[in-house]
Specification:
- The chain is of the alpha/beta class and 829 residues long.
- It is built from 19 helices and 35 strands.
- Helix 14 packs across helix 15 (629-641).
- The longest helix is centred in the C-terminal third of the chain and has 19 residues, at 722-740.
- The protein is elongated.
Length: 829
């Protein structure tokens, strides 16, 4: 956000890493005014900008401003002090008019603690690191030095001549020919043998080298490290928009302008066009309505450091071979070295036409592994028809790449405009798949890791092992389907997992090779192209946590179809014939029980659990907050033995014998465990479910009772309604029930009923939310008759108002009779 510097020496914090600085020189001759600055970007970078007393600018961070901004200020006659010598060099170079002297305004650049650079010296006299001439500003073309005597004149459009891809149908030739190399004086090179390929193009192949010294070290240059063309991801990040995937279609995220309001609403709708290069967005919140759009046309990407700031470091210039050093492989005349490698390719099932289309060649060069010169097979890594890197394969199957070259995918130009891409582990596998008819294939440059790395996926700037994916994100972001066809061994499967983690598992499919084949090339050699096509067309979706097909549950589904009538999945008997016609207990379900006070809902659930324990051997965890422990024990033992605990008060029958009581307590101890809070604090649902999980593992419980809802601790986050809280609470309870195959009974009281005349309440009368009926599997209202005219006062109606599983029950109102002396229920005939 715009911030104004209030004094002549005030700092400005740029809180975001994608730093776009626009500094306006608002100082007068006396320096009384300060500088207004606008900063916008993404990240966590911190930069300091000072306005010195002379009205100039002091920067202590190389990332604080664009170099062009410093130059603009320097041209206006202000002193620019730089802690970064790289910025100082750039400013000095521009002030001096490309080394010719004559600055625009007598400007000077002073490194902090260093010597000022005047506009008259062009930045050459005191340039750091011993550079005789300062490098140009970013974005300004650099005039190439004149060729040294004897050097061949090579045509180039930003890459290596000889690898500039011709615009031909089908991209039949990967490498365009270089012009005939001329020696000084105009004579043609006598040491080169010209051969003509099928497209009528020439390829220079040198004669064998008799004597060579070790290769020279790569030079150093000041141009920024090339990271390829920018992707839509980079363009959108400039506006603060970060998506999980950048595939064409609609996306919803939190708006970076309004942050989705107080609720964090995903109000920003982002539409990526089918081409994957343009996007538009709009915030649907009425008090924001931020709109915009972006594309990747006409953009370039500057390299950035680990903190997201623009990097001005010098990088090693990759020393790519000249075209005349490469010996083509393809139909027609070839050198002996190329012919030897061509024979190896034929043995691997690769035709010369495929080799030529993919630019394969041979180069005689120094091999680090062999400590000598070898004829190595070259795999050219291209991007947009420009040579980016070369991977070499030595005769002893050793591999190395050009030092300092950018890492990209092999075959990157073959996936331009594709919606589906196949990724393989090696260059030979890519060639093998082309023989099987697939050209939309790329290969990773560095092979497979030993194992999957633990922990989260590193940030792009730290993900050095897989930097080739981030360097190619402009091509990969818009791909809708990746078929990962890596090797079937352990490292190959680890590579498959790592690629899927970075590309998005929802976009990835995995190929399974035949039993006797490790990779695509082996499958081509042993079983032919048809078998390779069969493997690719039957690729299976990469496993996603929580996403399944019904076929993955086929044994369970078939077992459910063939189960007997006594199987638990069809529900177990409640112990009452009348109730079984409408309600049977199925493990893994949630039953909500309600009723007006003193209607016997807790008594009926206790009796139901006793029946299940006796008839089916079930055990239970009880979180009954309204019952004291000794009172709850009395009720359960009475129901088990069928005799009253006491006599006189509520029963005229004789009380149970002490031995009977002890026998009942042993039974009670075997089938029930208690969940109780040991202090005066109210338990929460999460606390109860945590102990219930432990009870499943330790005691093997099959049922859980939570009685009642209004006795629990219901602290909810600020801004969350009770309806939202109840919905999330019931969801957690249901997940517990399904995961541990436990039936849960949740007792809830109805809200206060006005003008109540004795009728049974409904599930929508439960205090709190309608989600009690919406989310439960079974909804039951227990209602006791209070009118003698309507029947016995001991008659209880079990009103089954909701049954989700029609196999286990149906809606109805079976009736039971309650026995006061022992707490048991019997069917009403």
């Amino acid at each position: 956000r715009p911030q104004t510097v209030r004094s002549r020496r005030t700092r400005m914090h740029a809180t975001q890493a994608s730093v776009h600085r626009r500094c306006v020189d608002a100082s007068n001759a006396s320096g009384a005014r300060a500088v207004a600055a606008a900063a916008r970007g993404i990240g966590r970078a911190r930069s300091l900008l000072f306005v010195n007393r002379r009205g100039g600018i002091t920067t202590r961070s190389a990332a604080v401003m664009w170099p062009s901004t410093l130059v603009r200020l320097a041209r206006r006659g202000k002193t620019v002090e730089c802690a970064s010598r790289a910025i100082g060099v750039r400013c000095a170079a521009t002030q001096g008019g490309n080394g010719t002297g004559g600055g625009d305004g007598g400007a000077s650049v002073r490194w902090l603690g260093g010597t000022p650079q005047n506009g008259s010296n062009g930045g050459g006299a005191n340039a750091p690191r011993g550079q005789p001439q300062a490098p140009p500003m970013r974005g300004q073309p650099q005039v190439p030095p004149p060729p040294s005597p004897g050097a061949p004149a090579v045509r180039s459009n930003g890459g290596q001549a000889g690898y500039n891809r011709p615009a031909q149908a089908g991209n039949s030739a990967r490498m365009a020919p270089a012009a005939a190399t001329q020696k000084p004086g105009g004579a043609a090179a006598q040491s080169a043998v010209k051969s003509k390929n099928s497209n009528g193009q020439y390829f220079a192949t040198p004669a064998p080298v008799v004597k060579r010294s070790k290769p020279e070290e790569e030079g150093e240059y000041a141009a920024p490290e090339n990271t390829g063309p920018p992707g839509l991801r980079d363009a959108m990040m400039e506006s603060g928009i970060v998506l999980q995937s950048y595939t064409p279609g609609q996306h919803r995220i939190i708006c970076p302008t309004c942050n989705g309001g107080s609720t964090g609403e995903r109000s920003l709708a982002v539409n990526i066009e089918d081409c994957g290069k343009r996007a538009q967005w709009m915030c649907h919140r009425a008090n924001c309505e931020w709109t915009g759009g972006t594309d990747t046309s006409g953009r370039s990407r500057a390299p950035r450091g680990s903190d997201g700031a623009i990097s001005n470091r010098r990088v090693a210039k990759p020393k790519l071979p000249a075209p005349e050093d490469l010996q083509r492989i393809g139909p027609g005349t070839m050198t002996p070295a190329a012919a030897k490698w061509a024979e190896m390719l034929k043995q691997r099932g690769i035709s010369l036409e495929t080799a030529e289309r993919n630019g394969l060649a041979v180069q005689n060069l120094y091999s680090p592994a062999s400590s000598g010169y070898v004829d190595a097979l070259c795999f050219p890594y291209m991007r947009g028809g420009e040579l980016i890197n070369i991977k070499y394969r030595g005769p002893d199957k050793t591999f190395w790449q050009v030092k300092g070259a950018e890492k990209v995918l092999y075959g990157l130009d073959d996936i331009e405009g594709e919606e589906e891409v196949i990724i393989v582990e090696g260059e030979m596998d890519k060639l093998a798949l082309e023989e099987a008819g697939f050209k939309n294939v790329v290969s990773v440059p560095d092979g497979a890791p030993g194992k999957v790395k633990d922990g989260p996926t590193p940030a792009p700037e730290e993900d050095k092992k897989y930097e080739y994916l981030w360097n190619c994100r402009a091509q990969l972001d818009s791909i809708s389907r990746f078929v990962i066809a890596t090797d079937s061994d352990g490292p190959g499967q680890a590579l498959s997992e790592e690629l899927a983690r970075r590309l998005g598992k929802e976009r990835c499919w995995r190929v399974k090779w035949p039993e006797d084949c490790k990779d695509a090339n082996e499958a081509l050699q042993k079983q032919g192209a048809e078998a390779v096509r069969e493997c690719l067309t039957t690729a299976e979706g990469f496993p996603l946590r929580g996403l399944f097909r019904f076929s993955e549950f086929a044994p369970e589904i078939e077992s459910y179809f063939n189960m007997s009538a006594a199987n638990e999945l069809r529900g177990v008997s409640s112990g009452w014939k009348n109730v079984d016609n409408h309600y049977r207990i199925v493990p893994g379900e949630l039953t909500v029980v309600t009723g007006v006070p003193n209607s016997g809902k807790s008594e009926w659930v206790d009796a139901l659990m006793c029946n299940l324990a006796v008839q089916h051997g079930w055990s239970f965890a009880l979180c009954s907050l309204e019952n004291k422990v000794h009172e709850h024990a009395r009720k359960l033992v009475e129901k088990y033995v069928g005799e009253p605990w006491f006599e006189g008060k509520y029963s005229k029958a004789a009380r149970m014998h002490p031995d009977t009581m002890r026998n009942g307590m042993r039974w009670l101890n075997e089938h029930f465990v208690l969940i109780r809070h040991e202090d005066d604090e109210l338990p929460s649902v999460d606390w109860i479910l945590g102990l219930a999980r432990a009870a499943v593992l330790r005691h093997g419980i099959r049922g859980l009772l939570i009685d009642p809802y209004n006795e629990l601790d219901h602290k909810r986050p600020h801004g969350q309604t009770e309806t939202e809280y109840v919905s999330q609470m019931l969801t957690r309870i249901k997940r517990f029930a399904q995961h541990y195959d436990v039936h849960v009974w949740f007792v809830a009281h109805p809200r206060q009923l006005h003008n109540w005349k004795g009728e049974a309440p409904g599930l929508y009368d439960i205090s709190g939310s309608a989600h009690f009926i919406n989310k439960c599997d079974n909804g039951i209202v227990v209602h006791r008759n209070r009118d003698e005219k309507m029947g016995s006062l001991r008659e209880v109606t079990i009103n089954v108002q909701k049954v989700r599983n029609k196999v286990a029950g149906s809606i109805g109102d079976p009736k039971l009779e309650y026995n006061v002396s022992n707490g048991r229920y019997t069917d009403v005939v």
